[in-house]
Amino acid sequence: MKPVLAVMWAATAVLAASGWACSPAPASPSGTTSSLGSCSAETSRGRSCIDYVQGFTLEQGQSGCSQLHGTYAAGQCPTDNRVGRCTVTTNGGGVVIVSTLNAYGPTWTTSDAQARCLAAGSGDTTTTFTPN
Q1: What strands lie across the sheet with 125-131, from one edge to the other?
Q2: CB of 126 within 8 A of CB of 68?
Q3: 106: preceding bond cis by omega (within 30 degrees)
Q4: DSSP string across 18-40
Q5: 22-32: string of b/e by CB count within 10 Å (b at 16+)?
Q6: How far apart are CA 115 and CA 63, in angstroms?
Q7: What is the pTM of this model?
Q8: How far is 61 from 98, CA to CA, in rounded Å?
Q9: Domain total in the chain
Q10: DSSP codes of every residue in 52-76
Q11: Separation of alpha carbons 62 and 8, rounded Å
Q12: CA gyration radius, the chain
């Protein structure tokens, strides 16, 4: 497995173990998040969507989304009913992967999304939560 894929799947595994279906992104100066595509998925926790921000190719985003049984889109995740965003940054083997997981109500609450986001950070993976 190529190093970037190994890091990408490691970040996804950390999030999945914490109750997140998918994966984070720094906010641009305007407060929006840039995206290399997104993956929307329904899980036992409700709707979530990942914005692929850095370290992903189109093929990796599509493949990762398929592995999560989600729907890949070329644009950003929607903001309607979003309760928060978890930015996940993984730095492993000289490769930096950044994605943003968007959590949506009513099944996700802001406090639940924040707790799960912050619990997902460990080792080479850092997480930052932003409400709505």
Answers
A1: 71-73, 38-43, 46-54, 95-104, 82-92, 125-131
A2: no
A3: yes
A4: TT-S----PBPTTS-B--S-EEE
A5: bbbbeeeeeee
A6: 28
A7: 0.73
A8: 12
A9: 1
A10: EEES--HHHHHHHHHHTT-EEESSP
A11: 13
A12: 13
Which residues form the domain of 46? Answer: 3-26+33-131
Lookup: tokens for 77: 């995740």
Specify the residue for token string 């709707």. 47
Output the six-digit token pair for 76: 């950003």
* Nearest Cα residue to 117 out of 80, 88, 78: 88
Give pLDDT tens digits along the chain (132 positions).
343 334 444 455 444 444 444 333 333 333 334 568 999 998 777 888 999 999 888 888 899 899 888 999 999 999 999 999 999 999 888 888 999 999 999 889 999 999 999 998 888 999 999 998
